[in-house]
């Protein structure tokens, strides 16, 4: 079982009290049938806080920079992808080497029309904020070395050299405040769902009607769970300690709230000219059953395999838009990753891209991920918009880090909660196909919420 790095919990407790805190954890599945050497997780945990700049882009595409010290600057290019590229280029230092990942990026699912040819109905004000993209820039981060010790690393991002040096001193001083502790126990809370079981079943039936009519092959349908919460940092820490994954991320986004993600899914991983995605599609419970038998059954289930292969084809097509001709490949297909409560069916889709390809250009070809929309992607998003009663917000968007040299580690925002104004919103769902069984799909939705509900002390509250 992957362990929560020994010093990270205590350091996180300190940094979580600071503005703009970031904690992106490395990890691995408890077990996997993936080929030896396949690497679909972060190489190191990354922690920081107090970014020197935060970019916010709102639903109307207006952009504003918030700088350390209170200064703001409006920026109105109009195209969010170009705005991201501008910000990364503006703050990147020339010829930076040995850098840490210093840009934390969060993109809401509802930003999809910025990057894909789809229209979604307006949902302004559902969570009190219309911020759909946040990019925070840090001069320095803490990362782990091979022995698990935390080391200071410059990121290659900065606005002023003197401020970068001061940030390094400040971040180092935070380590002096660290003391070992355990998170407090969960607080009592009331859970509400955006959909009753009956309404979820009705939406599922509607999806299958669209499939029968030849309108769609697969739709990822979800429900949103909401509850009050007084200490989101304690909830996230309990969650990731009990159920570690390879893409757990905490990000304080300022006005837009805090994301508490325990995602197992890599959306985009870039190293130089290599771009990879690791779609998940196919789930089984990992508790209370024979693991080997369950894994083998998942790998052979015709429904799960058909559902999974649709998404592989979709991801191949997305990467193919920006890949060098003939370079798209599936080096690892339909292997299983096992976590605390679930087994997942996973594949790796890989492409070679031009080294000058920008973040904005990559997002225009790939966002949002195919595993959390359906196939065909555009029609799936339209049906999701029609059937889900509340907007997804950041759920099924993207979250992770970007280095000044262009390397990228972005996850799909699943197994994640969005905290704002004292409330947590957590969504869960699954892919619906022609032969989906209604009761099994409802059970899978709640299975994917199980670890979160346990961290909140609410297991069984949906029964």
Summarize the structure.
Helices cover 28% and strands 29% of the residues. It is an alpha+beta fold and 463 residues long.
Describe this structure in words.
By secondary structure, the protein is an alpha+beta fold. The protein has twelve helices and 24 strands. The longest helix is centred in the C-terminal third of the chain and has 19 residues, at 302-320. The radius of gyration is 21 Å and the shape is globular. 51% of the residues are buried.
List descriptors.
29% strand, 12 helices, alpha+beta, 463 residues, Anthranilate synthase, disordered N terminus, 13-stranded antiparallel β-sheet, 11-stranded antiparallel β-sheet
Q: What shape does the CA trace take?
A: globular
Q: Supply the CATH class.
A: Alpha Beta
Chain-averaged pLDDT: 91
Rg, Å, rounded: 21 Å
Sketch the major β-sheet: 13 strands, antiparallel
CATH architecture label: 4-Layer Sandwich
Total of DSSP H or I helical runs spanning 4+ residues: 12
Tell me the count of domains: 1
CATH third-tier fold name: Anthranilate synthase
The proportion of residues in beta strands is: 25-35%
Structural class: alpha+beta
In percent, how helical is the residue content?
A: 25-40%
Catalogue the unreliable spans. Answer: 1-5
CATH superfamily, please?
Anthranilate synthase
């Amino acid at each position: 079982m992957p362990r929560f790095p020994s010093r990270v919990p205590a350091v996180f407790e300190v940094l979580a009290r600071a503005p703009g805190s970031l904690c992106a954890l490395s990890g691995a599945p408890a077990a996997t049938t993936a080929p030896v050497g396949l690497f679909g997780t972060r190489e190191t945990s990354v922690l920081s806080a107090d970014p020197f700049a935060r970019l916010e882009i709102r639903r109307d595409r207006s952009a504003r920079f918030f700088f350390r010290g209170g200064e703001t600057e409006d920026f109105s290019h109009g195209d969010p992808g170009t705005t991201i590229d501008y910000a990364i280029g503006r703050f990147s230092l020339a010829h930076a080497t040995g850098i840490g990942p210093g840009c934390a990026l969060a993109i809401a699912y509802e930003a999809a029309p910025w990057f894909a040819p789809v229209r979604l109905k307006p949902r302004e004000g559902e969570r009190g904020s219309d911020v759909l993209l946040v990019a925070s820039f840090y001069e320095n981060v803490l990362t782990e070395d091979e022995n698990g010790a935390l080391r200071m690393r410059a990121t290659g991002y900065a606005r002023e050299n003197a401020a970068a040096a001061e940030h390094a001193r400040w971040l180092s001083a935070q380590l002096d405040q660290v003391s070992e502790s355990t998170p407090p126990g969960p607080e009592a809370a009331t859970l509400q769902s955006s959909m009753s079981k009956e309404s979820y079943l009705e939406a599922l039936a509607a999806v299958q009607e669209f499939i029968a009519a030849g309108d769609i092959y697969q739709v990822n349908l979800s429900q949103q769970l909401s509850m009050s919460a007084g200490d989101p940092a304690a909830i996230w820490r309990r969650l990731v300690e009990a159920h570690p994954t390879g893409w757990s991320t905490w990000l304080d986004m300022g006005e837009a709230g805090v994301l508490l993600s325990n995602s197992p899914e890599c959306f985009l991983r870039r190293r130089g000219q290599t771009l990879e995605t690791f779609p998940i599609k196919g789930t089984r419970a990992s508790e209370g059953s024979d693991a080997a038998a369950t894994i083998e059954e998942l790998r052979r289930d015709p429904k799960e395999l058909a559902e999974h292969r649709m998404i592989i084809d979709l991801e191949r097509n997305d990467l193919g838009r920006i890949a060098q001709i003939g370079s798209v490949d599936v080096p690892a297909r339909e292997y299983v990753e096992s976590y605390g409560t679930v087994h997942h069916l996973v594949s790796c889709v890989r492409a070679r891209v031009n080294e000058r390809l920008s973040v904005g250009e990559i997002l225009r070809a790939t966002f949002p991920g195919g595993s959390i929309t359906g196939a065909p992607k555009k029609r799936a998003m339209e049906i999701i918009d029609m059937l889900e009663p509340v907007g997804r917000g950041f759920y099924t968007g993207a979250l992770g880090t970007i280095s000044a040299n262009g390397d990228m580690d972005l996850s799909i925002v699943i197994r994640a909660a969005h905290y704002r104004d004292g409330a947590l919103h957590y969504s869960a769902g699954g892919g619906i196909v022609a032969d989906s069984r209604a009761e099994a799909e409802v059970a899978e939705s709640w299975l994917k919420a199980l670890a979160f509900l346990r961290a909140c002390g609410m297991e069984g509250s949906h029964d």
